[in-house]
Give the backbone structure.
Amino acid sequence: MARSGGRRISAQEVATLTGGRLVGPADVAVAAVAPLERAGPGELSFLAGSRHLPYFRRSAASLVLCRAEHEGEPLGPRSRVVVGDPQAALLAVLPVLYPAPDPTPGVHPTATIGAGARWEEPVTIGPGVVLGAGARLGRNVRIGPGCAIGEGVTIGDDALLHANVVCYAGTEIGRRVILHAGAVLGADGFGFAPAPVAPGGTGHRKITHVGRCRIGDDVEIGANSTIDRGSLGDTVIGDGSKIDNLVHVGHNVHLGQRVLIMAQVGIAGSTQVEDDVIIAGQAGVKDHVVIGRGARLGGRAAVIGDVPAGATVSGYPARDHRQSLRAQAALFRLAAIVDDLEALAKGAHGGSR
Amino acid sequence: MARSGGRRISAQEVATLTGGRLVGPADVAVAAVAPLERAGPGELSFLAGSRHLPYFRRSAASLVLCRAEHEGEPLGPRSRVVVGDPQAALLAVLPVLYPAPDPTPGVHPTATIGAGARWEEPVTIGPGVVLGAGARLGRNVRIGPGCAIGEGVTIGDDALLHANVVCYAGTEIGRRVILHAGAVLGADGFGFAPAPVAPGGTGHRKITHVGRCRIGDDVEIGANSTIDRGSLGDTVIGDGSKIDNLVHVGHNVHLGQRVLIMAQVGIAGSTQVEDDVIIAGQAGVKDHVVIGRGARLGGRAAVIGDVPAGATVSGYPARDHRQSLRAQAALFRLAAIVDDLEALAKGAHGGSR
Amino acid sequence: MARSGGRRISAQEVATLTGGRLVGPADVAVAAVAPLERAGPGELSFLAGSRHLPYFRRSAASLVLCRAEHEGEPLGPRSRVVVGDPQAALLAVLPVLYPAPDPTPGVHPTATIGAGARWEEPVTIGPGVVLGAGARLGRNVRIGPGCAIGEGVTIGDDALLHANVVCYAGTEIGRRVILHAGAVLGADGFGFAPAPVAPGGTGHRKITHVGRCRIGDDVEIGANSTIDRGSLGDTVIGDGSKIDNLVHVGHNVHLGQRVLIMAQVGIAGSTQVEDDVIIAGQAGVKDHVVIGRGARLGGRAAVIGDVPAGATVSGYPARDHRQSLRAQAALFRLAAIVDDLEALAKGAHGGSR
């Protein structure tokens, strides 16, 4: 375990936090969480299902979250908290045993504060942070070391920016947003016109990007991900959406609410992703398409057209997931018979090929 | 709109900037740009084509760029500037209405300037910038907060580095180059020899990289992209090339002029990409191949060999684009018939399989 | 060449460093290395094989590393060092001619040092570095500008962190590790539960991540790569593993020793990669699978299940490499015959489809 707040909570407190029922000795307390096979005295663990019973029976954990079916298990730790879903129940205990570090609020003396920037107390502005002119931070915003917050950026209450995040001018960030280290919000989109550049120069002319990058409430964005600003309109990430590391979201993309995007996904310009879509790792979505509400894009899917609401697609190019699986299976069966097929096909048409 | 310089330009100025012809009332002025459906009084919009006519007819924009065919449209905003390509014409107006922020030149007191570093005035060196020994900056170079510029780096006139860019020692950057936040130029390439490491250590021995990373004039590189230095020779990005976000360019790669590379593309070591090549998002190119002049690599293309000049390729592995499309179509038709085919193939050869 | 320490070494020293045999005039010295076609007086080059003989014959290099077979080549530079593998031999000379810059040790006055952070002398802590409370650095650690080192991070002897690296709290880094610019270690993994969020909020509830990110000895991690912390247990990168740029390693992943991972690879959560595995660029590995010792994953491979030790796989989904090649070849042959096949299949079954 990386962090420990040094807190110690009783078995009964664990039962209360998880809405569970304490059985066995109640005079135990725990200060950390560990998997069954590694847990020792003073540690809480969980029995996710029967296949983990061998570990449970040998576990030295002081307290274990388990289902009702394992409540009477003769071996294993005696103190148990009976819950419906032990792994989910653990989620309620973790923040208590491992509270997020609570930095002392204040503005670090090495921060650079632009003219007219303002915030509500308490706020934490770390070493080397640059806050642009006119930036506005809500209550309890915490900005990690080395972040560069451009002119006129707004950040909602309780947002947390880890180290070295960059927000270009005009970016809007909602409440309770978490931005991981190195994320870049609001950079210019990739837009160039085949027009002559300045005299003496070479290549395409840059399209001035005047739209914003707008991030809703309860959004989390992973390390080194990039969300471009809009060209004329805005790029929008809807409330409750979660984005993993190294993801690219192009200019003018609109993401709905509660969209989940895993690592290294790329979404090209002006595409709309509706509410509750799930996009697995390394998938890519073409520009100017619509991914319908609740659709699921499989890992590495290459989406080159609209996806209907509720559909599950995969493959390159992406199609209905079952069709894709069937096509892939056929391909591997095919390799074994293609020689014969060529002979057949040729025979059928008199060798016209 | 994220930015507004507070400028206000007349309908006639818009006509002049775009080379267009003003029709309708001339006594309007605009201070911002917006799409037809959102534009209001004091705003300029554009009618790209007939399918947007419904928006045009209801638009509250004060001034609209349109084609000659829509010049006499009875409904919609009365003041119009007639041009050949309304969307392209807008590009000429945007930089005037939304001028790039012009930071006050100077060296921020929190910057660290190495011995012998020098520049031509005016120059803007932001908070927390580290300028290595012997670095040389041209006229009007602007370096954003938190950039780390290594020893002996040279940066040409009018270049703009956004926040937290890193240039390793010896990197050369041309004139009018734009580097977006978090880009890393000149890191060591991925080169290891299966030679014994230092006593007590484990694994491969690092190949010392002594080549440079050289960026031509008028290049733009996206957020969090990485361009490695060369091993013995240099990695070179030619004049006028534009690179999107999260792109990887390996050691010793040579990119020609005006190459366009979209997000999340990877180009492995020592590959040559000739002038005017276009590489779409998430494509990958093997090491030591040549992509011929003007070739186009489709989105997600996996290039494992040379690509002839002017060719268009796609797929995995990448082949001629039409062949790829045909193969993919065949694959999906195949899945529906492969059972029958296996029976046929088997029958044709007496069940030899 | 980007760097030169101004050192000059004799032909005999080159022979000694490379374990080679000097033939021809011994009174030459070299101060730099260059390819045959660009090398001039005072420069060392190498003749990798016979196909480079035309360059060799015209080369102006002062000294050339070559094989015994080219020892008596009548044209070309006269001073030669005969070795078994000229390119490999060069590796022994490069660090001598191009010594890594040796920064003056010390703690830069703009660094921010947390309570209880400590280190062994000598140590180099660059401008703007933030060292969290309780962080511990070994001997000869060098930390580049703008790095943010979280609370309780430990870094082993002789480790080198380039600019703007971020290590979240509790990260452990081994000896002789090299972290390139913008790498992010120990960010929270992508873990969310479909549980209700805080009142008024939207979407999934974040799973508190309490595991660490642990990096072994002799590891190198590329620019802008991200290695997440574990959720309950740790994410582990084994000794001697090398990771290229823009790579994503998810929470709870265990990498063995001497694993090589090329650019833009993604490895999803809880996957195990055993010793000596090689993963080529843009490959992806699903969560919760095992990649057996010494396996090789081809470029862009999409691995969706366990891979046996020693296997070579490629394709989407990844299969045995030869099978994949065969399937791809069959696919492209297929496109030419599928019309005929449909007719055949239909005929064989009386038009039942």
Remarks:
- The helical segments of chain B are 11-18, 53-58, 86-97, 321-335, 338-348.
